[in-house]
Amino acid sequence: MTRTAAVERKTKETDIVVRLNLDGTGESEISTGIGFFDHMLEGFSRHGFFDLKCRVKGDLQVDGHHTVEDTGIVLGQAIAKAVGDKKGLCRYGFFILPMDDALAMCAVDLSGRPYLNFQADFPAKQAGGLDTELVREFFYALSYSAGMNLHLKILDGSNTHHMIEALFKAFAKALDAAVGTEPRVSDVLSTKGSL
Fold first, then answer.
1. What pLDDT sits at residue 108?
2. Alpha-carbon distance 144 to 150, whole Å?
3. SS3 21
4. Which pLDDT tens digit goes with each residue over 32-58?
5. Could you give the CA distance from residue 137 to residue 190 in angstroms, rounded to a whole number?
6. What is the dihedral of CA 157, 159, 162, 166, to 10 degrees?
7. How far apart are CA 190 and CA 23, in angstroms?
8. What phi and psi values does residue 125 have, to the nearest 5 degrees?
């Protein structure tokens, strides 16, 4: 059984369609109108082995904020939908990822309790047309709509491109571990009996 989700969201600011397969091979079709953001989502797909289709039409004539934040909302909803009742999931995942000068850490708990701890100071205000302050906005929106506890931290780095890419890839690897299955868990991994 593959774990998939399709989510659409249309507002006056954005029109977004996301299709996600957690049990994929890392194939992606991404179009957000922001080239660097496309690259980050492609990296997330490839390194997490998630098949991801993401089409976004946003009000880029204003700026990239609505496009990036709303994509986080919709991708988070797709993740929540795809994991379903979370029975048999590992629940937790973590990864420390090096990328040249950058070193990023990510830890994920699919607890149902949204929380973001984001620690990253980027040297540049933009990377390939993406305002770097929007990286936190993306992960904040995603963590809350997915109902996940998400910790992201840059441990070292000097190149903004590398730092952001390391965060996206570390998140992909941590999420891949968290959505993995554990044969010793027949229900959910919680003493409460539900997540």
1. 98
2. 9
3. strand
4. 999 999 999 999 999 999 999 999 999
5. 29
6. 30
7. 23
8. -85, -15
